[in-house]
Specification:
CATH architecture: Beta Barrel
Structural class: mainly beta
Helix content: under 10%
Distance between the termini: 28 Å
CATH topology: Porin
Largest sheet: 16 strands, antiparallel, barrel
Length: about 425
């Protein structure tokens, strides 16, 4: 028995020691699993098992006690600073060998997360490849939704501590249960441009709920232009993408509220038809993103932009995508939001400056002066937020980095009590990230 345990630990050691860089995009194939170790395998039965992971311990300080936070949960009532383990994940990839070269016939992936709060599953899925050209694949299980650039950028590679407010509310946990078809050319010698197309059906509630709560499914797709190189020295590249989500969830009551005008005010107008019970509340997103990268002697400069707009069902108190069927009246809102990144290496590629701006406007049919007016039934849920972030990262190795970051959060000034001026909810973060 002891001999078997030692052999297993040796296998794990070799996988850790010679594993290539981790997966950058959540819906992409981790091509590092094709790299063969430079040492002999210890036990053949483990030769197609790959292990990777990362850990993110951090310290945060907020402007006031009990600050609401989008990243690691809100601060407790009497706390304005904390140590926490933001993420600690381990991922297992098992490759079913194919007949041609090193390209697999199928890939099984399991990813788990353990923090001081809980232990949970992040990914459990299988990806099967069309056997001849390998350009087509089918993925089934719990995996990332193929929507947008920021949602799909892995937390281990993302330069800022967290995704934007809109991402976290509309795409909580980034994952969902479903099935997805992908087209992506595997011919590395093929000339630009190269496209990748994902399309899938998903339950809709993601990981935030215990089970599917209605019969409606979300259709999600993304068309991605992989980075195209330009310039004499191929030192400038452009990538882009278009995303679509078309779905919704069942209404549990007959009360549906939509925006309209009454006595010169923009208010929620109620529709109380019995036909609303069980009917679909529309959830529709449209997104576009673009990335510009310029490489130079001391690293690179990168600019990213991403914009979403659409329709989001919710309740009076939240626009977050629900994990369980809301038993409250349904509120239909038109929204928009965006994310902008400016990334610049300084001195060399070991130092990086990050600037980020994002906004989320949950109700584009109104202006800030409408919220809180006498006779208005608008609430804090309809308030727009703009977030400005700045930080620095020091990359010690490709496996270890330290970042410091400051989020400046600005809310609309309304007539609502407590929101007539900007609420103090800025947050400082210092994080260490270790990968293997």
């Amino acid at each position: 028995m002891k001999v078997v345990v030692k052999i297993v630990w040796l296998c794990v050691f070799f996988q850790f020691a010679f594993k290539a860089d981790a997966q950058r995009y959540l819906t992409d194939l981790d091509t590092s699993i094709f790299n063969r170790d430079t040492v002999s395998r210890v036990v053949k039965r483990f030769e197609n098992l790959y292990v990777s992971g990362y850990m993110q311990p951090q310290f945060q300080a907020a402007q006031r006690k009990g600050t609401p936070a989008y990243g690691g949960n809100s601060f407790q009532e009497f706390s304005d600073n904390r140590f926490m383990l933001r993420r600690a994940r381990i991922k297992f990839d098992y490759v079913v060998p194919g007949k041609i070269g090193d390209f697999p016939a199928a890939l099984f992936t399991f990813q788990f997360e353990a923090t001081e709060r809980d232990v949970n599953i992040r990914d459990v899925y299988v990806r099967v490849f069309e056997p001849k050209e390998k350009n087509l694949s089918l993925t089934a299980g719990l995996f990332s939704r193929p929507y947008g650039f920021e949602v799909n950028l892995s937390s281990s590679f993302r330069e800022t501590p967290e995704r934007g407010r809109m991402s976290q509310l509309l795409m909580p946990s980034e994952r969902d249960l479903g099935i997805m078809a992908t087209y992506e050319s595997q011919n590395e010698s093929r000339k630009n441009p190269q496209l990748k197309f994902d399309i899938g059906l998903f339950n809709g509630q993601g990981k935030s709920g215990p089970a599917e709560f209605d019969s409606y499914k979300d259709l999600i797709s993304r068309l991605r232009l992989k980075p195209v190189d330009f310039g004499k020295n191929k030192d400038f590249s452009i990538g882009a993408g278009l995303s679509l989500l078309y779905g919704g969830w069942a209404q549990a009551t007959k009360y549906k509220y939509e925006m309209g005008q009454q006595n010169g005010l923009f208010v929620f107008m109620v529709d109380s038809s019995l036909d609303n019970i069980g009917d679909k509340a529309p959830r529709q997103y449209y997104g576009a993103d673009v990335q510009f990268i310029k490489t130079h002697g001391w690293g690179k400069t990168e600019i990213r932009g991403e914009y979403w707009r659409g329709i989001q069902p919710g309740t009076e108190s939240t626009t977050e995508n629900p994990g369980e069927l809301p038993i409250e009246p349904t509120y239909i809102r038109h929204f928009d939001g965006a994310f902008f990144y400016f990334l610049q290496n300084i001195i060399n590629d070991k130092w990086q400056l990050m600037l980020k701006y994002d906004w989320y406007d949950p109700n584009t049919d109104i202006s800030k002066t409408d919220i809180g007016k006498t006779g208005s039934n608008l609430s804090l849920t309809d308030v727009r937020y703009d977030t400005y972030g700045m930080g620095f990262t020091r990359y010690f190795t490709n496996k270890l980095k330290v970042l410091v970051y400051y989020d400046i959060v600005r809310n609309e000034k309304t007539s609502l009590s407590g929101f007539t001026s900007d609420v103090k909810d800025n947050i400082f973060t210092c994080r260490v990230q270790m990968m293997f």
